[in-house]
Amino acid sequence: MGGELVFSGEMPSNPHDFAYSERLVEPTESRSVGKVLALVFPFLWPRDQFGMRVRVVIAVATLILGRSANVYGPIVLKELVDGLGALATNAITVQALLGFAFLYGAMVLVPGVLTEIRAAVFTPVSEYAQRVLGLKTFRHLHDLSIRFHLDRRTGGLARAVERGTRALEQLTRLFAFNIGPTLFEISAVALYLGFGYPFKYVLVILIAVVAYVLFTLLFTEWRTRFRREMIEAESRATTIGVDSLLNFETVKYFNNERFEADRYNGSLLQYMVAAVKSQTTLGFLNGGQLIVRVACQIAILVMAVLDFAAGTLTVGEVVMLNTFMLQLFIPLGFLGSSYRMIRQALVDMEFLFKLLELEPEIKDRPNAAELEVSNAAVQFDDIRFGYDERIVLDGVSFSIKPGTTTAVVGPSGAGKSTLARLLYRFYEPQRGSVEIDGTDVGSVTQESLRKNIGIVPQDTVLFNDTIRYNIRYGRPDASDEEVEEAARVAHILDFIRLLPAGFETRVGERGLKLSGGEKQRVAIARTVLKDPPIFVLDEATSSLDTGTEREIQRALKEVATDRTTLVIAHRLATIVDADEIIVLDNGQIVERGNHDTLLERDGRYAELWRKQQRDAALAEEALAQTAS
To answer: Is residue 2 part of a domain?
Structure first.
């Protein structure tokens, strides 16, 4: 059963693209059925949930009772039919026959009733297991490193995780309530016939069942490739659709609606072709199963008629044998789809377990302590770091004294934002250390570290919820008054009050209903509400107009008072008041000092300052000409 793949997203044209996530979680069915079931079992038999265990025991008991009644039903029917013949000779009373009739009705009713009881009892167990597995996966995804999340394909990953959690319920239902009970019923019928009737009946039934199963499994194995193609095309279409909708503004900017529709249509066409093949071969499978079943029934009836003619079987026994065959082949009729679903569920579960086995690139050390911040002094000591083989920072060392502001400037790709990610411990430096109050951030828990740092990122992404929710995300237990005060500090309170829904206004997917400046002010309010001792401002005002930028700068300067602040800046005018300015180029510090000192030095910083001043003057001149 090994080697089947389930497509979790559109394959990249370059096989080295997205290597980290796709290589490590490519879903292959490498575990045996037993190993997968062993991994599933703890979710269905939770150690700390006695009530759930009781439900499992009751469900299994109702299953055994129901299948036993299923086997006993044809035997009662035999007694009833034979009793009809005995009634003419007064060998049996009408009351006895009526008793058999009611008993047969009970044997038909009991399995159905027990099935509903079993579903009612076991459904909470199944839903509990799915919830626990889904929550475990969700938490694990958040624990994985930023490298994984930069490489992931959201649409395909979400679809695969959804299929994996659903596969838990499918495996349980198919193994415990379909395959297992069917095997139990076949064994019970074979034992009953083997002890009371000629072995030839048992032999025919066993041959028929084996032939039926082999044909179903082999044919299903052959047609699995069409099913796989269909699933791959479905996942590809889902990924393309999600990515396209998430980036709909880019689609419209470049007038590529038709191009996106063609891409999506191409995946749907592939899905349609594979779905037609899958459905056609399913018809052949059902036809072959029908031939095997009818041939077995004819063989049993021919032998039964001959034995009846020889006087070794009664009419009731002929009816019983035929009823046994009908009952046995009804659940076997679902074997093809059950086998396919089991295989698919195993693949989906394998993907999920591979995902859960991914080790976070950054994790707390065994003896990690809670970070206690007193002065909030930050130290970068001989930092060397690179992405893959590209070195971004090489030998960078500087410190930020408590309550002061240090700005980092430099061209794009110089490693400015990487400093913030190292401070947050999204990555580990390959050499050197990042320290807060003399404590290496690698020796403390990530939760306590990030609790003491607040960031206003360059690219602000908001949840598709209300403005109040997005601001309160900085401190979920904050009161409405504190949320409003944070909005006031971020100079967005007046704007919010003008909205018809006020703080209850929904911001749309990724906050797209707000302008860039409005989103950034929400991000500032969110960080202000968090109230951390260390601030990181990563191009915090890059999306604001000049007037608003000055207002926000004054607000940020007020908020940053007595806090340790790291500012990553592109526009030098925003950091002229910084206590120290670090100039990065090619991953190294080329200059450092305050604004006046660096201008007097007439080096790289002064060159950048003059260039930006010229650009600003030209922009104002062009604006004035346009206005006139």
So the answer is: no
Task: Look at residue 400 in the predicted model and tell me its pLDDT.
Answer: 92
Encode burial over 121-145: b for 16+ CB neighbours within 10 A, e otherwise.
Answer: bbeebbebbbebbbeebeeebeebb
d(CA 449, CA 472): 20
Helix (H, G, I), strand (E, B) or coil at 568: strand
Beta-bridge partner residues of 440: 435
* φ, ψ at 292 (rounded to 5°): -60, -45
Report the run of H or E that residue 464 belongs to, with start and end.
none
42, 94: one domain: yes
> Rounded to whole angstroms, what are the CA distances from 560 to 50, 75, 116, 454?
53, 86, 64, 11
In whole angstroms, give the CA distance from residue 515 to residue 448.
33
pLDDT one-digit tens code per residue, 21-54? 344 444 444 555 666 667 777 777 777 788 888 8
Which residue, 476, 507, 531, sits at the end of a domain?
531
CA-to-CA distance for 40 and 98, rounded, in angstroms? 48
Domain that holds residue 467: 459-531
The H or E element containing residue 536 is strand 534-538
Helix (H/G/I), strand (E/B), else coil: 200: helix
Assess if residue 208 is contained within a domain.
yes
Shared-domain flag, residues 68 and 180: yes
CB 472 within 8 A of CB 507: no
Q: Is 168 helix (H, G, I), strand (E, B) or coil?
A: helix
Q: Could you give the 3-state DSSP secondary structure of residue 561?
A: coil
- Exposure string of 291-313, with b = 16+ CB inside 10 Å and e = fewer, is ebbeebbebbeebbeebeeeeeb
**Encoded tokens for 322:** 């035929």
66 token code pair: 């129901």
Structure tokens at 363: 């994790």
Torsion of CA 47, 51, 55, 58, to 10 degrees: 100
Measured distance between the N- and C-terminal CA atoms of the chain, rounded to whole angstroms: 76
Q: How many residues does the chain have?
A: 628
Residues of the chain with pLDDT under 70: 1-37, 88-91, 145-160, 333-337, 340, 509-512, 540-549, 551-552, 555, 619, 623-624, 626-628
Number of domains comprising the chain: 3
Q: In a 3-state reduction of DSSP, which class is residue 414?
A: coil
Write out the DSSP string of 607-627: HHHHHHHHHHHHHHHHHHHHH
Question: Could you tell me which residues are beta bridge partners of residue 588?
Answer: 585
Beta bridge partners of residue 12, listed in sequence order: none
Q: Is the dihedral of CA 278, 284, 288, 293 positive or negative?
A: positive
Tokens representing 167 are 């596969």
**Is the domain of 126 the same as that of 227?**
yes
CA pair distance 167, 172, nearest whole angstrom: 8
pLDDT at 397: 93
Q: Which of 417, 425, 424 is nearest to 392 (CA)?
A: 417
